[in-house]
Write a structure and sequence with these properties.
Layout (H helix, E strand, L loop, with lengths): L3 H20 L6 H36 L3 H29 L10 E7 L3 H22 L2 E9 L5 E9 L3 H5 L4 E7 L10 E11 L13 E6 L7 H5 L3 E6 L4 E5 L5 H27 L1 H4 L11 E6 L4 E4 L4 E3 L2 H5 L4 H23 L1
Parallel strand pairs: 4-9
Antiparallel strand pairs: 1-3, 1-5, 2-3, 4-5, 6-7, 7-8, 9-10, 10-11
Helix pairs in contact: 1-2, 2-3
C-alpha cells in the first residue's frame, strides 16, 4: 500500500502552489510555479480518486458489519467490485509517482545515419526517417528536417530532425541504438537477403539555462547548400557548419534560404550534443545502478531487427517480436514497440523502488 503521508504531502504541496499562484501573479517565479502546478494536477486528481475509493471501501465494510441483511448484501456486491478496481488504481498511481527523467518533456534532436550495408543501408535510413516522421505526426508532434544528406537511389546517408511536442523524449529516448534490417535489396538480382544497419541517436534538446556556449570557442563556416532546392541552393551560402573547438564536435545544417535559421538550428544541435556528453558522463558514473535497464542509450548495441522476408520486427532489449513489420516501418504500429519499452522501463523502476523499500 502507498504510504498515506506521501500522498498527503503531495496534496498539501498542490494546495500551497495554488495559493502562491494567486499571490505571485506576474512575478519572476510565476512560470516555474505554474509548471509545477500543472504537472502535479493529474497526479493529485489520481490521488484524490484513490483516497475516495479507499474511504468508500471502509464505509462498505462498516455497512456490512451493521447487520442489516439487505444493506449488507448490497454493500458486499459493491465491495467485491471495488476490490477488483483498487489494485489497478494503486498500480497506476505508483507509476505516476515514479521519478521522471528530467528531460522527459524535452523536445529532441533526432539523428539517423546509414551504417554498414552501402546503398541498402542508406535506403533503410530513409525508411527509418519516414517511420519517425509518420509516428510523430500520429502523436501530434512537429517534425522538421534540419539537415539531410542524400545518397544514390534515393537513400539517406545522414539526417537530422527536430521533433517538438509534449513528452517527445519520454517516448523516443528508447530508439537510440543500432537498427538492423534483413531484406532483399532492390539492386540484388539474385534475390539474396542482405543485412544492413543504421544508427539512431535521440538527443534531448536542452533549454538555454542548461548549456552555455562561449562564442570564442566556436569556428563558424558558411557554404553553399547542396541537394534539392533549385537554383537558389547553388547561389547562396546558406548552409552553416559550427565547430566547437574544446570538444571537436562539428555540426552542420542547411536550409533552402535562411543562413540565420541554419545558424540557430546548428546551435541547438551543438547544445544538444554537449548536453548529451554531460548526460553520458553521469550515466557512466551510475553504470552499476543502471545495468540491465531498458534504454541505456548505448548506440553501439543492436536494439532492433527488421526482418522483411518473415514480416517481423524484434526488439532485443525486451524480447518482443511483432509480425506486422509493414505497419511498423510506416510508423503506424511503431507505437506498439514504443509503449512496450516504456512499460518495461516503468516496471523495472517500480521493482527497484519496491526492493529498496
Amino acid at each position: 500500500m502507498i504510504p498515506t503521508q506521501k500522498l498527503d504531502r503531495l496534496i498539501d504541496r498542490y494546495a500551497e502552489l495554488e495559493a502562491r499562484l494567486s499571490a505571485e501573479a506576474g512575478s519572476a517565479q510565476f512560470p516555474k510555479l505554474a509548471k509545477e502546478y500543472a504537472d502535479l494536477g493529474p497526479l493529485v486528481r489520481a490521488i484524490q480518486h484513490y483516497q475516495t475509493a479507499r474511504e468508500e471501501q471502509k464505509a462498505l465494510k462498516a455497512m456490512m458489519d451493521e447487520g442489516e441483511p439487505d444493506l449488507a448484501k448490497m454493500a458486499e456486491e459493491e465491495l467485491a467490485e471495488l476490490k477488483e478496481r483498487l489494485p489497478e488504481m494503486e498500480h497506476a498511481l505508483k507509476l505516476m509517482l515514479l521519478p521522471k527523467d528530467a528531460d522527459d518533456d524535452a523536445s529532441v534532436i533526432l539523428e539517423i545515419r546509414a551504417g554498414t550495408g552501402g546503398d541498402e543501408a542508406a535506403l533503410f535510413a530513409r525508411d527509418l526517417l519516414q517511420m519517425y516522421q509518420r509516428y510523430s505526426q500520429l502523436q501530434g508532434w512537429q517534425f522538421e528536417i534540419a539537415s539531410l544528406s542524400e545518397g544514390v537511389l534515393g537513400g539517406v546517408k545522414e539526417a537530422v530532425a527536430e521533433v517538438t511536442g509534449q513528452g517527445v523524449y519520454a517516448k523516443l529516448k528508447f530508439e537510440s541504438g543500432v537498427h538492423r534490417v534483413q531484406r532483399v535489396p532492390a539492386t540484388e538480382a539474385q534475390g539474396r537477403i542482405h543485412t544492413s544497419a543504421a544508427t539512431v541517436a535521440v538527443l534531448p534538446e536542452p533549454q538555454d539555462v542548461d548549456i552555455t556556449v562561449n562564442e570564442a570557442d566556436l569556428k563558424i563556416d558558411v557554404y553553399r547548400a547542396s541537394g534539392a532546392g533549385g537554383q537558389h541552393v547553388n547561389k547562396t551560402e546558406s548552409a552553416v557548419r559550427i565547430t566547437h573547438m574544446p570538444t571537436g564536435i562539428v555540426v552542420a545544417t542547411q536550409d533552402e534560404r535562411s543562413q540565420h535559421k541554419n545558424r540557430s538550428r546548428a546551435m541547438k544541435l551543438l547544445k544538444a550534443k554537449l548536453y548529451e556528453m554531460q548526460r553520458e558522463k553521469l550515466d557512466r558514473e551510475r553504470a552499476a545502478d543502471r545495468k540491465g535497464q531498458v534504454g541505456s542509450g548505448d548506440r553501439s548495441e543492436r536494439i532492433r531487427t527488421y526482418n522483411f522476408p518473415q514480416g517481423r520486427v524484434t526488439d532485443h532489449r525486451i524480447n518482443l517480436t511483432l509480425y506486422e513489420l509493414d505497419r511498423v516501418i510506416t510508423g503506424d504500429a511503431l507505437g506498439k514497440l514504443v509503449d512496450a519499452l516504456v512499460t518495461e522501463h516503468q516496471a523495472s523502476k517500480l521493482a527497484q523502488l519496491e526492493a529498496e523499500g
